[in-house]
Amino acid sequence: MAEPQTGSDELALRAAEVATDVTEAEYEQERQRKVAAFLRAAGSGARGAGRGTRAAWRRVEAARRRAGWGTGWLAAQVTAMAPRLRVRDQAALREQFGGQSAEEIADALIEGAARAAGAAGGVAGMWAALPVLTVYPVEIAAETLVLVGIEIKLIAELHEAYGRPASGNVAERMGAYVASWTHRRGVFMIPGGVVLAAGSPLARRLRRRLAARAGRSAFSLGPLLTGAAVGAFLNSRETRRLGRDIRRDLRHGALPGL
User: Fold this and answer.
1) Start-end of H helices in the chain
2) CA geometry: angle at 33 spanning 114 and 237, to 5°?
3) What pLDDT is stored for residue 187 in this prediction?
4) Is residue 230 part of a domain?
5) How far does Cα 137 stand from its chain's mean position?
6) Mind listing the pLDDT tens digit of every residue in the chain (258 residues)?
7) CA distances to 90, 104, 106, 249 from 97, in Å
8) Helix, strand, or coil here: 190?
9) What is the per-residue pLDDT for 83?
10) Residue 196: phi, psi to the nearest 5?
């Protein structure tokens, strides 16, 4: 996986941190607080005010404008974010979940990720309800990256829980899990490799999946608090469904991991 470009680093790194922290947070209030801080920084930076964190977001927004808005830019952020996600290996998961079975750990991982995704959608909806002009494209990008990070982390940890991790170094493993997210399959089921070369079928499919995911994120920005409710519901449902799809492959796949 290629090194992310300077200027994209800040967004990818922050999105990875938030996705990781929100997934592993114990309490709903904590999850909402972390996502709210991320979206607040995104919106404030895009409006071009402030110093410190908001100034960093101004640089991110400038990089986004240079690259052009679209799924190609989002795909670049996802591939830059993935290696930065903190993934618990099988030993860490067994220790954390008290020696539970792979099935029990998978249940906990899927439900935890679904709650995290729901919190992200709900918080985005609440921000849209505030009497402040929000910069929707930037907020949609921010929410989408957090959601995709939550789901890629879930995929990676499901593979660990079942003892089927992808092989290779961190970048290669996380590249495999990005491909897994793109195809909604376990990494051993992916045809044609996992190279995200420009113009490749996988790269095009990743962009299509991100377009659909960003479209769902836009529901979070609906009127009043209806956006919060819809965003939380859609995000939780989609993440739970994805986790179950991956778990089904891991249960029944006959081929070894990549």
Assistant:
1) 9-24, 28-47, 53-67, 71-81, 90-96, 102-129, 136-161, 170-183, 201-219, 226-252
2) 15
3) 87
4) yes
5) 17
6) 333 333 457 778 888 988 988 888 777 777 777 777 776 666 554 444 344 444 444 554 554 454 445 678 888 889 999 999 999 999 999 999 998 999 999 999 999 999 898 887 755 554 444 444 344 456 677 788 889 999 999 999 999 999 999 988 999 999 999 999 999 999 876 665 655 666 677 888 888 888 887 766 655 454 444 445 666 778 888 999 999 999 999 987 644 444
7) 10, 9, 10, 22
8) coil
9) 95
10) -95, 50
pLDDT of residue 214: 74
Q: Which helix (H) or strand (E) holds 152?
A: helix 136-161
Q: Which helix (H) or strand (E) holds 89?
A: none
Domain assignment of residue 221, given as a range: 9-252
Question: 3-8 long-range CB contacts below 8 Å, 24 or more apart?
Answer: 3/80, 4/76, 4/77, 4/79, 4/80, 5/63, 5/76, 5/80, 7/59, 7/60, 7/62, 7/63, 7/66, 8/60, 8/63, 8/67, 8/76, 8/77, 8/80
Looking at residue 113, its amino acid is A
Asked if the structure places residue 258 within a domain, the reply is no
Can you give the pLDDT at residue 211?
Answer: 82
Cβ–Cβ < 8 Å for 102, 161: yes
Domain contains 236: yes
Count: domains in the chain: 1
Q: Is residue 178 part of a domain?
A: yes
Report which of 123, 121, 109, 107 is spatially closest to residue 152, judged by C-alpha positions: 109
Q: Retrieve residue 29's tokens.
A: 């209030």
What is the rounded CA–CA span in Å between residue 29 and residue 206? 32
Where are the extended beta strands (E) located within the chain? Answer: none
CB 114 within 8 Å of CB 108: no
Lookup: tokens for 27: 């309490």
